[in-house]
Amino acid sequence: GSSDIAIINPAYDNVVFGANNSRTYLYYDSVSTLYTDANGIYVRSSTNYSDGTIYLGSNGSARIINDDDSYFQILSGSGDTVIFQYNNASVYLNHNGTQVIQTHAEGIYVKSTNTNTDGTVFLGNQGVAQITGDHDNATYIYNGSGDAVVWGQNNSRTYLYYDGAGAIYTDAGL
Question: How are the residues of the chain apportioned to helix, strand and coil, as percentages rounded to the nearest 5?
């Protein structure tokens, strides 16, 4: 006798199959779409074993999607993209459905939700210390007290501050 167990429906399609000391399978329309083994749980599409989606919650709006040939994506309960990555390319982190961080082979891009040309990196728990790139104006660096440390105007002067007051600046010919 076999110590495997199977649950089949009236049409003799597998619904659940558990092999002794091995994998346990769940089926959809006679196709294994979820199985367990010593490494964990595997979820795969019934039409393409390389792809799979995990739906979370009763409405399934929150989900984790893997398309082996194209992308990986995590959606929130409101259906907004939280993380998105094309295979072998950038990873995008979104805030409220809008891209704010993008990885790149040379580093990361930080973008404002209002514009793709500006961005701020907030440092520390309170975010008072910050580095801001304002495409149309300047680059700013503020310390943890909120005082300006560096302010570099586009195509013009760069100011260095001491205790929140301008101490030195660059000028043409200096």
Answer: 0, 55, 45
List, edge to edge, every strand of the sheet that includes 107-110. 52-56, 62-67, 71-75, 81-86, 91-95, 98-104, 107-110
d(CA 7, CA 151): 70
DSSP string of 75-123? E-TTS-EEEEEETTS-EEEEETTEEEEEEETTEEEE--SS-SS-EEEEE
Q: What is the pTM of this model?
A: 0.75
How far is Cα 61 from Cα 81, in angstroms, rounded to an integer?
11
- Measure the CA–CA gap between 144 and 172, rounded to whole angstroms: 31
Measured distance CA(50)–CA(10) in Å, rounded: 29
The model's pLDDT over 9-55, given as tens digits with 9 standing for 90+, comes to 998 888 999 988 889 999 998 899 999 988 899 999 988 888 999 99
